[in-house]
Amino acid sequence: MAILSTLLAVSEPSGFWISIIKAFEAVTNNYVLAIIFLTVVIRIIWGIVDTFSKYNQQKMNAIQVKLQPELEKVKAKYANSPQQLNQKQNEIYRRYYGKSYYTGCLAMLIILALNFLIFITLFTGLNSMAGYNIDKGYNNLKFNYANAINVIDDYFEGNYQDEAKLDIFKDYQSLGFVIEVIDQTQTISLVKYQTDGENNFILDENQNKIVEEVLNTIEYSTNFGYIETVSQEVNGNIITSQKAVTSNEYIITILNKIFPIYAEGEEEGSKEIILIEDYQPVVDADGNILLDENKNEIYQDLYLSTAIQNVCMAYVVDSYDLNHDSFLWIENIWIADSPAIQSIMSYENLVSQVGSANIENGEEQIYNAFMGDLQEARGRVNGYYILPILCVVVSSLSIVLNNLYTKRKNRKEGKEIKAQGAAKWMQIIIPVMLGLFALFYNSVFAIYMLTGQVVSTILLPLQLLVVDKIINRKTKIEDNNTIDYSRKF
Questions:
Q1: Cβ within 8 Å of residue 225, ≥6 positions away
Q2: Residue 18 to residues 25, 107, 122, 254, 441, Cα–Cα distance (Å)
Q3: Helices (DSSP H) in 379-484: which residue ranges?
Q4: Which of 134, 143, 140, 169 is nearest to 155 (CA)?
Q5: What pLDDT is attached to residue 5?
Q6: What are the C-alpha distances in Å from 308 to residues 190, 347, 411?
Q7: What is the pTM of this model?
Q8: Fewer CB atoms < 10 Å away: N or C end of the chain?
Q9: Partners of 190 in the beta sheet?
Q10: Judging by beta carbons within 10 Å of its beta carbon (0-12, 13-18, 19+), is residue 26 exposed, middle or buried?
């Protein structure tokens, strides 16, 4: 059971979209599914608005085709008179478009503005949520680790030479931690589990480890800070003052007790408490046993610090496995889907994600105490550029389908209109921009963009069909209302 920090450095984001995402997340119990369902709902609703936009565009295109011949004549006639040309062109536009030209342009601007607003506000909200969840995940691991070393320090009661207690840690594989709520207070216990002769845990009928002995129990804390009273003699007088000891300072004090700091030139291990001499052979990166100059196997001692770290890290790794947010091939959804990024962030990346203003003094030392080992145990690349590639491909597919429809329609009506200028470039720029957003920002936002593009592409044929039906119906009504005044002889 993982305990979340109640003193997170990054405040929980709020807002319109965040509230909706939380509501979906409460139902799905999964951030990614919440984003997918939210995106589907947004795109279906937006599909209705987008259908109107497509109809309006088709209507404007049809009018443009009708007035084109007159525009060409006017351009040829008044080629040498720009002022008259402009006046005549405006007269043609007013005659064909009427008020619909300005109404249509205004409607398109409003739709574009709303689309941009949704994109930016969701982008901002999901970025805030990413920073918050990265900080929350780190704090969860940090306080689990801090409480683990704290209950061990309390167990030794400052006496790390107690032979009986040192003997307990010689069999460190059988040790672990249990979180419970006792009288509405969360506690953490250092326990010894039942094992067989080969250090395998004995499990009950529910496949849970059986506790053989509870070694120590203290209150689980997410804030180790306290006020320290300091007394000193000044000119024969005892002066008492108070000093605030921060949570990080307290954690670092325990770390320095368990893991001695070596100055330059000091022999590694000289300050360590040895539990078992020649405990196990030293191996290289490939698992081969190292040999000395006499071809004898090199053995290393088991230190108390090593035993404590192994027990604590087993608990941290279990906590990570239980709580980290992953999705399919993406190990950490709050950072980008990229093989250039590790799922367990470096300290520098953590600072950049949560902001240096939210990092307390001493944080790097605490981070290095356990996150490096977690990186070795669970770290891997966070993705393979799949989301950025899919965003580009699906967006391009949507544009291709729309272009095919337009070409087919124009061919059927005997017209040939090609995208030119800005419109042509936008067909290239939009997929590239979506790919770049997916490449450089968190995977959750990339999933939002990809889901939106997929839903829009699926809805596109239906939208175009509806637009065709509306246009055909209006054309039929206009044809039926046309009266032929020609006389027949």
A1: 244, 245, 246, 247, 249, 250
A2: 10, 28, 8, 39, 18
A3: 386-412, 421-440, 443-480
A4: 169
A5: 40
A6: 11, 23, 76
A7: 0.83
A8: C
A9: 177, 216
A10: exposed
| CA of residue 142 relative to chain centroid, distance | 19
Buried b (16+ CB within 10 A) or exposed e, 448-467: bbbbbbbbbbebbeebbebb
User: What are the structure tokens assigned to 409, written together?
Assistant: 């329609």
Which pLDDT value is given to residue 91?
A: 78
Q: How far apart are CA 436 and CA 116, in angstroms?
A: 17
pLDDT tens by residue, 124-170: 999 999 999 999 999 999 999 999 999 999 999 989 999 999 999 99
Backbone angles phi, psi at 230, to 5 degrees: -115, 130
Over the stretch 373-431, which tens digit does the pLDDT of each residue have? 999 999 999 999 999 999 999 999 988 888 888 778 777 766 655 555 556 778 889 89
Which two three-digit tokens encode residue 321? 């496995």
Cβ-based neighbour number of residue 188 at 10 Å = 23
Question: What is the C-alpha separation between 280 and 302, in angstroms, rounded?
Answer: 8
Residue 446 has pLDDT above 60, yes or no: yes
Do 327 and 333 meet the contact criterion of CB atoms below 8 Å apart?
yes
Structure tokens at 128: 């805030």
Beta strands in 165-306 (DSSP E): 175-182, 185-193, 211-219, 226-234, 237-245, 274-281, 299-303
Which has the closest alpha carbon to 125: 20, 232, 228? 20
Asked if 207 and 345 count as a contact pair (C-beta separation under 8 A), the reply is no
Residues 299 and 279 sit within 8 Å (Cβ to Cβ): yes
Asked whether the beta carbons of 279 and 301 are under 8 A apart, the reply is yes
Q: How far apart are CA 146 and CA 218, in angstroms?
A: 13
pLDDT in tens, 75-101: 888 878 888 888 877 777 777 666 666
pLDDT tens sequence across 44-82: 998 888 888 777 777 777 777 777 788 888 888 887 888
Contacts of 174 (CB under 8 A, 6+ apart): 192, 193, 194, 195, 199, 201, 212
Token pair 């078992």 is at which residue? 276
